[in-house]
Amino acid sequence: MHDLGFVRANPELVEKKLRDRGMDPAETLGDFRRLDEQRREKITQLETLKSQRNELSERVGALKRAKEDATALMEQVRSIKERIDEDQQSADAIDSQLRAILTRIPNFCRDEVAVGRDEKDNVEVKRWGTPPELTFQPKPHWELGAQLGILDLERAAKISGARFAVYWGDGAKLERALISFMLDIHTREHGYTEVLPPFMVNSKSLFGTGQLPKFAEDLFHCVDAEGFEPGQYRDNDHWLIPTAEVPVTNLYRDETLDEASLPVCLAAYTPCFRSEAGSYGKDVRGIIRQHQFQKVELVKFTRPEDSDAEHEKLTRNAETILERLSLPYRRMLLCTGDTGFSSAKTFDLEVWLPGQGLYREISSCSNFEAFQ
RNA sequence: GGAGAGGUGGCAGAGCCCGGUUGAAUGCACCUGACUCGAAAUCAGGCAUACUCGUAAGGGUAUCGGGGGUUCGAAUCCCUCCCUCUCCGCCA
What we know:
The protein is α+β, with helices and mostly antiparallel strands.
């Protein structure tokens, strides 16, 4: 979320950045300016009253200690208190409206990010490797996997439903080997520390990384049947993580890191759970868009002035994995319209899929700046 | 699930029973100054965060796990939630 003072101080910039994202500044910002002024006006008013109340209360205390009568003064404070209660209510209402606006403003894309509408406007930055020229018609992975007996989507559907996978034998081993391979390279060669976080987090963590409040629909929400209200959530509800980014980034939430310890580089393996609401009919075949998938995540905490260089290094670290596996890929710089809500700049790595004859996203590396 | 004990500033630790000069004693850590050739020790002073008013100096408000309540006034009393610890029970 952006800082209130920053949004107030940079109205032109905010509007420009919203337009770059294809958003309507008027619609997104609404009554921001008026609410912000009202809020500060109310605060001043409220605090003056509170100041009076505190002063008078103190005098009541002094009188009582001196064993003198204080009833007149107490009556006076009581009337101030009533006005405070009223003002407090309207101040709270203004506050929550302002907060609602702030939480819906996305991070601002860096200037070097191309302004564009969707993935068609993404810019190819580099390409590595050459897609092999095959003398035969390559099979899609779901056919190959089924034939080899390593991928079983039918039984997954039976025990869990659509968009799940069962990996058998070498398929399960391959998954495990890839996880170890990535963790080992990142921890031994790239200087990351391995962490194993919980796979469930509370609501506050999801606000911290920007999944809530806008993207509640994309998450699996664990609630007690008792007291459940659809669409509602409480601070202590549990949610299945949609990516390790959520628990790992929130590790240091509300903490101040010692500058000398930066950059903090963390690598985490977790399963990831996504409801994929709204994606029905998309990528229905195979294991491309699953409710549960396994991922190794890299997270860095850096000084602001180092974040670009560290973002580049992290992206290189991810590319190294593909290179060691001899998988041809290309790096895309996402345009403003395709960049995620919390990100200021995102590189997607797209790997060559012979069965489909195209590059598809395999990895996404974002600089979130101070937004999370 | 049951019983009990706790959660206070960067850390440690008072205050809570008996509400009011307590934004919070004291110690440690940290910063500045004095002393010293320098350091240690000692002495003096400083040392939270957010919001807000103000050009500034400076002021105000809030914050003692979170939220709510009682009261003229809450770290202190009441309710509720969260977390930690101890003991008992239950379960994979």
